[in-house]
Amino acid sequence: MKLIDKIVPGIEIADISEDLHLSGQQIVFTNGCFDIIHAGHVAYLSQAKALGDILIVGLNSDASVKRLKGDGRPINTQQDRALVLAAFSFVDYVVIFEQNTPLALIKEVEPDILVKGGDWQTHQIVGSDLVLERGGKVLSLNFVEGLSTTGILERLKG
To answer: How far is CA 66 from CA 13, 58, 84, 154, in A?
Structure first.
């Protein structure tokens, strides 16, 4: 599959997810800004993929990142961030979403497993109630201490 084929419009992900569910595959979903990819992201995403068959990553749009992180963010455009994520062998699909949270996207995907990084408690994870109601799992994965985009930017500022 070409990298660009792994980046799918939100309008297509429900059909893709339905086909995956019908074929018996376990879908893992996570989301984030993924503005400057670092080792913590790599560890987290590869760990997420190991939990199921398919990893779908919801990616905050540029406008969404700006609303959440403030002026000057994102550093990289949504298309560049999506392409970097799609380059990882452990990422199967990337879907850019415009909202501040991925709730609508989670409703479309209906993941079997919903994950976020260890800085999130499971009850804080958006969509956790929906996934649990369907008999799925919600997990907070290991957080690599000291690795964050914000930390990288602070070090660059000196």
So the answer is: 24, 16, 19, 17
Cα(103)–Cα(45) distance, rounded to whole angstroms? Answer: 19
Greatest Cα pair distance, the chain, in angstroms, is 52
DSSP state of 122: G
- pTM for the whole structure: 0.91
Judge if the upstream peptide bond of residue 74 is cis by omega within 30 degrees of 0: yes
Any idea which fold 3-115 has? Rossmann fold (3.40.50)
Running along the chain, 158 residues long, what does each successive block of 10 average in pLDDT? Answer: 90 97 98 91 94 98 95 94 97 97 97 89 91 96 65 64
What are the distances in angstroms from CA 11 to CA 27, 87, 90, 151?
18, 22, 23, 34
User: Encoding tokens for residue 58?
Assistant: 């919801």
